[in-house]
Design brief:
Chain lengths: ~550, ~140
């Protein structure tokens, strides 16, 4: 460039040697300056992180800076004089050219953002300068954040691991933008890792089927293979398929992976409760090696997934124990009680010989307490069943007025003994859809509480009414009342008020908890208003049946209770 | 064995793995004049039923070797015992077992604890129903 620098010696200076010498010096100085400027510009082009490429009118490369060479994997010698756009924009490996990616010399690609500026000299376009950056890292960071967010969402609205795992694999594959195949490995009983679930794009399922099949029939000992190494090291691990083709101990499925054009596999452990619960593998075609950010993100993803799996495992163990408890209480406690009550009846009915009055009194006490125990067992069971959500309701139209007067009649002997006046107020004829036996249990509970907690000479009133779309049942007493600070604690299983304990009023603290759960199972609500020393009112609201049926049938219960 | 009040002596097989309940059932039925054969597990119950061809069987649901429900299944598959009245006894409150008991073809389901007198009444009413016609008493 410097050799062609054009200059003209002014004519008037030609014969003046002193001036000529001075002029020559000035010219040399200008030449030096120009060289400095050119060098400066070159440094500028080379030091920027953006790729800069000059092309001529035929789109041939005239200049390529270092950053561009590094990003593209081509040397200046590969590019200068050759059609640049054809080399980097045209798709390879059957992929679509979308103008959003540049292909590298090695056949991989990166997402690109670029701009072009024409070089115009005297209104004539001489070529263009193309400036580009690798948009991948920024977009990847964005996608990794999206992936973390999506995984958190999947975990939040999955009830079981069986539901969560397929969704997790799909989320990882779809959101991360890398990973055409995602696999989930778990330790089986003989201590080998086995592939439990896999995901690929539905359109790629046929293509990947052989590899998927191979994965699902492979058993990996911890420490071996890609998943095994991630399991053992408790850290994200990766393998280059190209390297694995040379050394198959790194990855035994390398040949099958290479055949599909997969270039890299990454595995990360799922850690929960201090142990590795599973390993997730991802395979893709575009990366040759994962960036640090990807590995960091996968490392961070292992914890919430592991926490979820661990929590669900504990929950299912708790459910199993609860089921076991229900079955144990149901069978092991009721069976001996059956014998006690059955033989008691033989004695009381003098089936095995006549009784004296004293014997009869003793037997009555045994009977009363056995029945109390049986009721307690029944209540405990009901609480466990309600908590486990396994209580079946036999739904039929139920007249609350009928149910209410039955409940009141049942309570009458006890109320009479305690000197308590029982009243019934019915307005309208509210019908609800519900389990007759269970609703009766709620009313029995509330009325017997009212009787228990009301002193001699007091009264308890049962009111049944319809209010718009709801049936309302109120049980009001003139009893000792409940301190306001207790609030909803009252409905907690085993809760007993201080006064109930002090006055040794019989009860397990389960009645209100059961009533609340039963009412809620019917789509209703229960609440308590109380004033100490004045009395309490419990209000149950239930949705009314849409229409009053022509006749309300009594449900016939197949099994007989006690 | 004590003679029946009404002279209507029937043969009944009762099976329960709980010795005391089994004795209670057998005692009350014998008191009512019936001939009772007892078994302590499902296999024994099935064998006894096939040998004795009783008029009725009372089976606990939860028994070793074969459950009461398994025994009902086996009885309903055999021509000779297809129509035999069967009462299942259960201490479970889980409705699932009630449903599978009826699905298997049990005619009655009685929850423990039960009154031994009520049980005998139920047995006798079922046997009378059984005499009236070929149709089995429908389940409620």
């Amino acid at each position: 460039m410097t050799a062609e620098f054009p200059f003209i010696i002014p004519r008037r200076l030609r014969l003046d040697s002193t001036l000529l010498a001075a002029e020559l010096r000035a010219v040399r100085e200008r030449e030096d300056l120009l060289e400095t400027v050119v060098e400066y510009l070159r440094l500028l082009l080379e030091s920027t992180q953006e790729g800069i490429v000059g092309i001529d009118r035929q789109a041939r490369c005239t200049f390529v800076n270092k950053a561009a060479q590094r990003m593209l994997g081509f040397t200046a010698g590969d590019l200068v004089g050759r059609p640049f756009l054809e080399l980097v924009l045209l798709p390879r490996n059957g992929a679509d050219g979308d103008g959003e990616r540049f292909w590298r010399a090695d056949g991989t690609w990166f997402e690109v953002e670029y701009s072009t500026n024409p070089i115009v000299v005297d209104d004539d376009v001489q070529g263009a300068v193309l400036v580009f950056t690798d948009a991948g890292p920024a977009r990847r960071t964005q996608r990794y954040l999206e992936t973390q967010h999506a995984v958190t969402e999947v975990l939040a609205d999955s009830a079981t691991p069986e539901e969560a795992i397929p969704r997790l694999l799909r989320t990882l594959g779809e959101t991360m933008g890398w990973g055409e195949l995602v696999a989930f490995w778990e330790l089986d009983q003989d201590g080998s890792l086995r592939c439990r679930d896999q995901w690929t794009l539905p359109s790629a399922e046929a293509e990947f089927s052989a590899f998927s099949e191979l994965s699902s029939t492979t058993a990996l000992r911890p420490g071996l293979g890609l998943a095994g190494k991630a399991y053992d090291s408790r850290k994200p691990t990766w393998v280059s398929i190209e390297d694995a083709l040379v050394d198959r101990t790194r990855f035994s499925r390398a040949d099958a992976a290479a055949e599909l054009g997969l270039r890299c596999g990454v595995a990360f452990p799922i850690v929960g409760g201090g142990e590795v619960l599973a390993v997730v593998e991802l395979f893709g075609r575009t990366l040759t090696r994962p960036d640090d950010e990807l590995l960091k993100m996968l490392d961070a993803l292992g914890a919430p997934i592991g926490h979820f799996l661990e929590r669900k495992r504990a929950e299912s163990e708790a459910d199993r124990l609860k089921d076991h408890f229900i079955s144990l209480v149901s069978h092991e406690l009721r069976t001996p009680l059956s014998s006690v009550l059955g033989y008691l009846e033989l004695l009381e009915r003098e089936d095995v010989g006549p009784l004296t009055a004293d014997q009869r009194r003793c037997l009555a006490t045994i009977g009363r307490n056995s029945n109390r125990l049986l009721r307690l067992v029944g209540d405990l069971l009901l609480v466990a069943q309600l908590e486990a959500g396994t209580i079946p309701l036999e739904i039929e139209p139920v007249s609350l007025a009928g149910l209410g007067s039955e409940a009141l009649e049942n309570a009458r002997p006890g109320a009479h003994a305690g000197g308590i006046d029982l009243r019934l107020e019915i307005s309208g004829e509210p019908i609800v859809h519900g389990d007759r036996g269970r609703l009766a249990q709620v009313l029995d509970n509330l009325i017997s509480n009212a009787v228990k907690f009301t002193g001699k000479g007091g009264h308890a009133t049962l009111r049944v009414a319809s209010r718009q779309v709801r049936a309302v049942v109120e049980v009001a007493d003139s009893g000792m009342g409940i301190p306001p600070e207790i609030g909803d604690e009252l409905f907690r299983p085993f809760y007993r008020t201080e006064s109930a304990r002090e006055l040794a009023i019989q009860g397990s603290g389960l009645g209100l908890a059961i009533s609340k759960a039963l009412v809620e199972a019917h789509g209703g609500s229960i609440r308590c208003r109380s004033s100490e020393g004045v009395g309490s009112t419990f209000t149950v609201e239930l949705p009314l049946a849409a229409q009053k049926p022509a006749h309300v049938t009594d449900g016939k219960v197949a099994a007989r209770g006690r | 064995m004590v003679g029946s009040d009404n002279g209507d002596r029937r043969v009944i097989v009762a099976a329960d793995d709980d010795e005391d309940i089994l004795a209670l059932v057998a005692f009350r039925l014998q008191r009512a004049g019936h001939e009772v054969h007892t078994a302590r597990d499902g296999e024994q119950a099935l064998q006894l039923i096939l040998e004795r061809a009783p008029d009725l069987a009372i089976l606990d649901v939860r028994m070793p070797k074969m459950t009461g429900i398994d025994v009902v299944h086996a009885l309903r598959r055999k021509e000779a015992t297809r129509g035999m009245p069967v009462i299942l006894l259960t201490a479970s409150v889980q409705e699932e077992s009630v449903k599978s008991g009826f699905d298997a073809g049990a005619d009655e389901y009685i929850k423990k604890p039960f009154s031994p007198f009520d049980l005998v009444e139920r047995v006798e009413s079922m046997l009378e129903l059984g005499q009236r016609g070929p149709a089995l008493p429908g389940r409620p």
